[in-house]
Amino acid sequence: xxxxxxxxxxxxxxxxxxxxxxxxxxxxxxxxxxxxxxxxxxxxxxxxxxxxxxxxxxxxxxxxxxxxxxxxxxxxxxxxxxxxxxxxxxxxxxxxxxxxxxxxxxxxxxxxxxxxxxxxxxxxxxxxxxxxxxxxxxxxxxxxxxxxxxxxxxxxxxxxxxxxxxxxxxxxxxxxxxxxxxxxxxxxxxxxxxxxxxxxxxxxxxxxxxxxxxxxxxxxxxxxxxxxxxxxxxxxxxxxxxxxxxxxxxxxxxxxxxxxxxxxxxxxxxxxxxxxxxxxxxxxxxxxxxxxxxxxxxxxxxxxxxxxxxxxxxxxxxxxxxxxxxxxxxxxxxxxxxxxxxxxxxxxxxxxxxxxxxxxxxxxxxxxxxxxxxxxxxxxxxxxxxxxxxxx
Length: 392
Fold this sequence. Notes:
This protein has helices at residues 4-17, 24-31, 38-62, 65-104; strands spanning 134-148, 154-155, 159-170, 175-193, 209-230, 235-258, 262-285, 294-317, 320-348, 351-369, 376-391.
């Protein structure tokens, strides 16, 4: 016979053992809703246990021996359901592990065909004309000689001068403004053998033999504004224009004799100072795709100077000095300058460094005086140069 106390005790045991727990079944089902085999089986055990529990409760209320015997059989059935449910729970745990494994497993993706793309060169080196805006400057050496196309053609030795510059690059419109100063001096000695035209101004005859010292000084200051343009990926141009101030001085000293009777000592000083407009065109060509920082470049720069030429001559014959001077002249002096060389540019930290090496020829038309006829004559510069610059 199952009394009220026994029913409570049995209910507690059943609840503790999990035989007819109503609450855990829905929770387990909710947590593993993806299982289609274990959960329905466990639910069937739950329904059977509920039905048995209802029957036991009815039999206990009747309190008859027959019903007590049936209740005992039902308790045995509930015990059997308990073991079946335990097996179902084990299956459910295995199902849970399989579900988790399936969720964490991702099938391998189908291999995609490999397409080889051509490798484009990386802009490791950036030429100066492609750098960002900011201050920039440069300094370098010129190794050049003076030439004088007068009656006695003169070529000095090669001498070292210098060139410095300071400017600002405007990033918005790819333009720049530059202030450039160049200086070159030469002072050489020459032995001169006479010819029918080898006359020094004021000399009473032909000079048989003489020794001369000739010196040149060249100073140039230019202020220019330039504009860059890219014709292609490899070819770029730089147009610029501005104003140029130039001073060109020549100093000649001659010691000689005339027919071995008259001994001559003479000195001629000529200087020209002029200012005028200048225009220029620079071209840059990068022949190698793998080295865009390396370029061939050339430039052409015509200048038209307007200024004053002064000329002073002092001659001494056997100790008697005769001084002469030509009146100052206002002259227009055309100047043509061209360059051809190599340029290498590379970024360094927050700056862009560039190196230029090339050859330059500059010709001045009528900038100095002839040593024989005391008339305007041409002069020039030619030689190599090396410039190092940086843009911040």
